[in-house]
Design goal:
The protein is of the alpha/beta class. 53% of the residues lie in helices and 9% in strands. A hairpin with a 2-residue loop joins strand 5 and strand 6.
Length: 359
């Protein structure tokens, strides 16, 4: 009916990502899964010291000196602006971004100029290189810039922010669906499930999938969706597939997990892998409405999810009304995406002659 919007794409991407944890970098002690070291910097440019806390997700970014790396002040300012943009996108969801440079505080202030740090975005001068040694050198990293994603006070990922996996893994960490050590433990079982699925050994495939999910249902919510897709698409057993959804996914494992319920609703309504006959929009609306009940009627994600299902059911007025609410409740950085969905609904309704209100 329409292209998948960026807001929905984040949900579908999670279903397509490999579950294997990213490898650590280098042979030095600091690796993925280790506790995050302290941030022992010389000076915080905005005067606010950052302490790693268990309930917060961080991007800790290191780069070379602006005076010795050959970069111009303009290039460095642009790099800082890119990190600010990352914070603008996800700061409202609790992300803290820390940018660390070996320059002194006065030099950094000159580079930053009039750009002031907002809540959750921090610049730090590490002239003594204590933090660089504890993070970058111990991780065996030789080339900067490099970013560390930290969640649950542990190193979750090490790489460049422009790496293909960086944003996807950041989103998973922020939603509590990424644990590299647990995923490494689960990988042999998941490999066995997928091999069994490939040779149509359904009994063993279900057994291995269930063992993976049982390790941590929240982390392995995408695997529960994969199991559902096997029943529906490979086994072509629609009744069994939706029985699994109602009894196990909605009724038990994810009854209080709004994000997983939205993942399910979007999968059913928008996955290009499913045919129209394989979609059960009654199940999708049940999952979306439960997500809204859990997150509250001011949640733009939940409102938008319900709106999307209504749209695919041909219920244009409901879709437009709920998506309008989602737009008004959304953070400034996400309003454009919500408006794009709203306009798409309005245009489709107008073309079908089903829109009762003004555009």
């Amino acid at each position: 009916m329409r292209p998948v919007n960026a807001l929905r794409a984040l949900v579908l991407v999670a279903l397509l990502l490999p579950t294997r944890a990213a490898p650590g970098m280098g042979r030095d002690p600091l690796k993925i899964g280790d506790p995050a070291p302290a941030l022992d910097v010389e000076a915080w440019i905005d005067g606010e010291a950052v302490t790693i806390e268990t309930g917060t997700v961080y991007v800790i970014m290191f780069w070379d000196s602006v005076t010795s790396s050959g970069r111009t002040d303009s290039a460095t300012a642009k790099s800082i602006s890119r990190m600010r943009k990352l914070h603008e996108l996800y700061g409202g969801r609790g992300l803290v971004v820390v940018v660390i440079s070996p320059d002194d505080a006065e030099r950094l202030k000159t580079v930053v100029g009039s750009q002031r740090s907002g809540k959750g975005f921090h610049l730090a001068a590490d002239r003594r290189s204590a933090t660089h040694r504890a993070w970058v050198r111990k991780a065996g990293i030789e080339k900067l810039p490099v970013g560390f994603i930290v969640g649950k006070s542990k190193i979750m990922y090490i790489g460049r922010p422009r790496d293909a996996d960086f944003i996807n893994i950041l989103i998973q960490v922020m939603t509590g669906r990424y644990d590299p050590q647990l995923q490494e433990e689960a990988q042999p079982k998941l490999d066995s499930a997928r091999r069994a699925r490939k040779v149509k050994n359904w009994r063993m495939a279900k057994k291995w999938y269930d063992e993976v999910i049982a390790l941590d249902p929240r982390v392995f919510a995408p695997i529960a969706m994969e199991r559902f897709q096997m029943l529906l698409m490979d086994m072509r057993d629609r009744d069994a597939a939706y029985e699994y959804v109602r009894d196990a996914i909605i009724g038990r494992m994810y009854a209080d997990d709004a994000g997983a319920l939205r993942m399910l609703a979007v999968l059913i309504t928008e996955s290009p892998q499913l045919s129209a006959a394989q979609r059960d929009l009654d199940v999708a609306i049940d999952a979306a409405l439960l997500s809204l009940e859990l997150d509250g009627r001011r949640s733009p994600d939940a409102l938008s999810c319900v709106a999307g299902v209504h749209f695919h059911r041909g219920e244009y007025d409901d879709a437009i009304g709920l998506q309008t609410q989602a737009y008004f409740n959304a953070m400034p950085s996400e309003k454009a995406a919500h408006m794009g969905l709203l306009r798409g609904y309005q245009e489709s309704a107008a073309r079908s002659g089903a829109m009762s209100g003004p555009r």
